[in-house]
Write the structure tokens for this entry.
Amino acid sequence: MIEIREGDIDAFFAAPFAVYADTPYVSPMRSDLKRFLSAKTNPLFEAPDDFAVFTAHENGAVRGRITAHVHRAANARFGLKRGYFGYFDCADDERVAAALLERAEDWARQRGFSEILGNFNLTAMQQVGIMTGGFEHAPYTDQVWGPPHLPRLLEKRGYSPSFPMTTFEIDIRAAPLGGILDGAEMRALRADGFSFSPIRRKTLDRRLEDSRLILNESFAGNPMFVPVSRAEYEFQAKEMKWIMDPRISAVAEKDGAPAGAVIAIPDVNPMLKAMGSRLGLSAPWHLLKHRLRRRRAVVIFQGVKPAYQGRGLNPLMLAHILGEMKAAGYETAGGTWIADANAASLRQAEKAGARPLHRLHLFGRTL
């Protein structure tokens, strides 16, 4: 018989290790996961009962997990009565999936919601989606990975896919950067007062706030986007500060004022995989090894203020940061998801020589 427990954080962390052995799955650090799953520390939540954590158990073994939560700001902004699920990970077993999803659905119904949608993982800038393709490719930091049985189990329960998305990877060594960085468009931008400033440790706090404001302005018209508060952004940035490489993030300025930003970090997933996503005695050795062998980076977000859009700044900003990555010894760069509806960003990825990495969809149903 399947037993569903609520609030067992240790089992929640252990679940994917138990059911996804020998797969590309990488877990967040256990300490970070505990921050995400606490109403005291995660500013995404306004009250302790804004979310719940469930795990499935059978014969003494953990068999899966799921969260149920409300994103009050999203529901208010878009006039929704929607509950959300996240971190849906389970064995390839219809009984386990049904038991977990039923608990999440009941949680949402009890709060008067008429639909449920996921995955939305519990970070300030939520990781989203259920993987539907590209399962063989290892994820970069901030990319979702799940096995091919998850979409099938969701559909069996009556969930339907929507909002298709793709993640990408760029081979920096082969990217066509020379003609872009030395081209007429780049020279014209510089002549017009545009420049690129790296995000150094002494300017990190100010630059992160600049990038948050740019994020909110540049993504304002995107489907489902909700402006990110300063508390949410700093909550997310807390986990990035210790891994940031100041060489590979930048703010684009127009006559000294912020106009756009690219936030990129080294991909720490290989290190987390080796550590088992736990802090132990070997952690300093893994961190040193990671810093000496950084070859993969990931672009967390890139945006340009609306006043400067349509002038070619976005692709030139990406070319600039890819050039900085190449000079720093990085070989590939991953990107977080781009929705099929975002034609401009898809064209930019194609021009940069990006190849599709993972396919994702949201899955939802009425209640």
